[in-house]
């Protein structure tokens, strides 16, 4: 599963090469919040990778009587159908993390392209791209997701496609604003005058200078991807034969786990989604704090030097 | 004035985009979803009704531009076709019957969350480093990490199934006749508590953090220092000077949220089987009822756009800087 490797590799590589960004990475490891988040993420990635070892065989195999409470044989109990909840949860991590990080990376890539093109070319290109972005931002997300998913044939690739289509616009707006402010700096003007090609200016001059913003939007997109995938699948709009945290919850709800009181059928998957999202949010919060001194909590209110323009 | 006209044009463009999306989806999607729908509907419908639906979905071999024009025309005249799952009720009637419940649920939850969240944000920013400021944000981020529908399921399980404090589903007990009497209203209220509570729980954090951050910026302004120098009471400075000015972004958010009330309560309605249009949208998806799906999508979009436009109008009134620009 290459995507899981992407998943584990994303956070470090997003802040790799240039010296300025290596500083960001070190600061991240210094920050307790970020470290906790990174460890939690690594743990989940490891569990997802090791699922075939930890819970060998098909996780949706029915191998026990249904609705059993957690016991020594089934640590997290069994579903109403008699599947092992622990195995379902471990295998579910694979699909959920894969979709989450794929959606995050793809949506951020589109947002980077749109944001950079808007900022670099300006004028008509900017107007047109901003218009499209704003329309996507304004259209109600969840209903749009549902209606797209309802018309497309069900499957994991549909889920990814639909989430990317609905998820890129917010990031694009943020990245455009940031790129625009960098576009106005002298060194970009110098690069234009020396005759560098537009693509080179966009990706080698402007992009590296907004790495931290790219990273926060990427993490935000991954959080969106994991949560929205679970939501879609919970509504029965994913591929219900795939094992993921979302489909686990869908089946738990469909089999009446709530009404029969088998809480172990729906608690683990929900907790996993929450923990991954929380870990990503922690890293995000830390990146924010490192790059935006105003949000640092130790500073007293009176000592705030900056002011909103 | 120019700003309002410009935005109005933009909203119309956005609405046109969603109509076009609605037009394009059933015609160009792979897997021929419309045929699947007809296969299912064959038994229950009269031939001439099927012919009418075929026309709606462009299966009548007219040129594309002609279909497009007639589709746009029928949308603007309020003709959204006939629902298949609730045959033979027109789509607009189905939406009309259920939008009230959505507005009630979403409206109540929105007002509570916005008022409470803003108050908490004001206090958190004013007492920086206090309990409210340091303990709440991480807690809210943690609560916000849970998938919304999962929290709703948990609340339903805990308070509905285990403790039995609140009813499990629907907007009122079966057998009650709707009317403006005490029994019915209190019944509706008890059914409203859990769904509204879960929405408030997940949305209050956003209001609080937003307000807190604007308040922090506002508190650094000169006129706050001036007010303190004059010796005004802290509560007066906090509410009349700082909060009043920090409230502007919240007005925008309130308007946006107002629009999303219509679509945003979707997952809540599904979990609690609350009979609003979000729940109906899912029913339509499950029943392959494409006309109803599209009608609901257009209604929600229209609500969002309308709310945004209203905010623009209010904003011009509230913020003199917008008028000058």
UniProtKB/TrEMBL annotation, chain A:
Annotated TM spans: 34-55, 97-121, 128-152, 158-175, 206-228, 263-287
Keywords: Cell membrane, Membrane, Transmembrane, Transmembrane helix, Transport
InterPro entries to which the protein is assigned, alphabetical: BP-dependent_transpt_permease (IPR050366), MetI-like (IPR000515), MetI-like_sf (IPR035906), OppC_N (IPR025966)
SUPFAM superfamilies, per database record: MetI-like (SSF161098)
Residue ranges of domain ABC transmembrane type-1 in the record: 97-284
Location in or out of the cell: Cell membrane
Membrane topology summary: Multi-pass membrane protein
Record flagged with keyword Transcription: no
Xref: Gene3D superfamilies: MetI-like
Superkingdom of origin: Bacteria
Alphabetized PANTHER family for the sequence: D,D-DIPEPTIDE TRANSPORT SYSTEM PERMEASE PROTEIN DDPC-RELATED (PTHR43386:SF1), OLIGOPEPTIDE TRANSPORT SYSTEM PERMEASE PROTEIN APPC (PTHR43386)
Family that this chain belongs to: Belongs to the binding-protein-dependent transport system permease family.
Protein name listed in UniProt: ABC transmembrane type-1 domain-containing protein
From TrEMBL, chain B:
Cross-referenced InterPro entries: MetI-like, MetI-like_sf
Location of this chain's protein in the cell: Cell membrane; Membrane
UniProt cross-references to Pfam families, sorted A to Z: BPD_transp_1
Membrane topology classification: Multi-pass membrane protein
Spans through the membrane: 7-25, 99-126, 138-168, 188-209, 246-272, 292-316
Transmembrane helix listed as a keyword: yes
Stored CDD domains: TM_PBP2 (cd06261)
Superkingdom of this protein's organism: Bacteria
Domain ABC transmembrane type-1: residue ranges: 99-315
Coiled-coil residue windows: none
Keywords: Membrane, Transmembrane, Transmembrane helix, Transport
Gene3D superfamilies in the record: MetI-like
Family named by the database record: Belongs to the binding-protein-dependent transport system permease family.
Name this protein carries in UniProt: Peptide ABC transporter permease
Organism: Streptomyces lomondensis
Source taxonomy: Bacteria, Bacillati, Actinomycetota, Actinomycetes, Kitasatosporales
């Amino acid at each position: 599963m290459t995507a899981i490797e992407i998943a584990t590799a994303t956070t470090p590589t997003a802040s790799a090469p240039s010296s300025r960004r290596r500083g960001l990475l070190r600061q991240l490891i210094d920050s307790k919040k970020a470290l906790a988040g990174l460890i939690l993420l690594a743990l989940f990635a490891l569990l997802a990778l090791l699922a075939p070892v930890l819970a060998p065989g098909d996780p949706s195999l029915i191998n026990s009587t249904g609705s059993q409470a957690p016991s020594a044989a089934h640590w997290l109990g069994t579903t109403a159908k008699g599947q092992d909840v622990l195995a379902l949860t471990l295998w579910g991590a694979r699909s959920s993390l894969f979709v989450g990080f794929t959606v995050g990376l793809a949506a951020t890539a589109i947002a980077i392209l749109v944001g950079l093109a808007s900022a670099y070319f300006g004028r008509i290109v900017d107007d047109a791209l901003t218009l499209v972005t704003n329309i996507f931002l304004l259209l109600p997300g969840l209903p749009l997701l549902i209606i797209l998913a309802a018309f497309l044939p069900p499957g994991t690739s549909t889920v990814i496609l639909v989430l990317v289509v609905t998820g890129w616009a917010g990031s694009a707006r943020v990245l455009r604003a940031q790129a625009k402010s960098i576009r106005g700096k002298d060194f970009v003007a110098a690069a234009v005058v020396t005759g560098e090609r537009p693509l080179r200016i966009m990706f080698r001059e402007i992009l590296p200078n907004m790495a931290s913003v790219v990273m926060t939007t990427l993490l935000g997109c991954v959080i969106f991807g994991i949560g929205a995938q679970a939501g879609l699948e919970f509504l029965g709009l994913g591929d219900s034969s795939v094992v993921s945290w979302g489909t686990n919850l869908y089946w738990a709800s469909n089999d009446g786990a709530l009404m029969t009181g088998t809480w172990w059928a729906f608690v683990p998957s929900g907790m996993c989604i929450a923990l991954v999202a929380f870990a990503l949010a922690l890293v995000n919060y830390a990146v924010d704090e490192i790059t935006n001194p105003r949000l640092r909590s130790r500073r007293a209110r009176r000592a705030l030097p900056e002011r909103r323009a | 004035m120019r700003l309002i006209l410009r935005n109005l044009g933009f909203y119309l463009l956005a609405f046109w985009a969603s109509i076009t999306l609605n037009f394009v989806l059933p015609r160009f999607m792979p897997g021929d979803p419309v045929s699947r729908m007809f296969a299912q509907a064959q038994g229950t419908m009269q031939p001439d009704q099927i012919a009418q639906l075929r026309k709606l979905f462009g299966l009548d071999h007219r040129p594309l531009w002609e279909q497009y024009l007639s589709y746009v025309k029928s949308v603007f005249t309020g003709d959204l076709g006939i629902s298949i799952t609730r045959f033979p009720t027109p789509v607009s009637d189905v939406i009309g019957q259920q939008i009230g419940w959505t507005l009630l649920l979403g409206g109540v939850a929105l007002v509570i969350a916005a008022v409470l969240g803003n108050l908490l944000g004001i206090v958190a920013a004013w007492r920086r480093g206090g309990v409210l400021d340091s303990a709440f944000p991480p807690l809210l981020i943690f609560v916000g990490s849970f998938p919304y529908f999962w929290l709703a399921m948990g609340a339903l399980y805990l308070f509905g199934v285990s403790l039995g404090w609140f009813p499990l589903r629907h907007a009122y007990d079966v057998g009650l006749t709707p009317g403006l009497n005490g029994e019915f209203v209190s019944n509706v209220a008890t059914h409203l508590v859990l769904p509204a509570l879960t929405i408030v729980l997940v949305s209050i954090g956003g209001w609080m953090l937003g307000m807190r951050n604007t308040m922090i910026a506002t508190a650094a302004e000169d006129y706050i220092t001036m007010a303190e120098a004059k010796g005004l009471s802290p509560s007066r400075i906090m509410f009349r000077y700082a909060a009043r000015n920090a409230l502007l972004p919240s007005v925008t958010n309130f308007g946006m949220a107002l629009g999303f009330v219509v679509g945003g309560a979707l997952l809540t309605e599904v979990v609690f089987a609350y009979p609003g249009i979000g729940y109906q949208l899912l029913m339509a998806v499950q029943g392959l009822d494409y006309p109803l799906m599209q009608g609901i999508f257009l209604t929600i979009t229209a609500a969002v756009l309308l709310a945004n436009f209203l905010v623009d109008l209010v904003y011009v009134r509230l913020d003199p800087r917008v008028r000058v620009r």
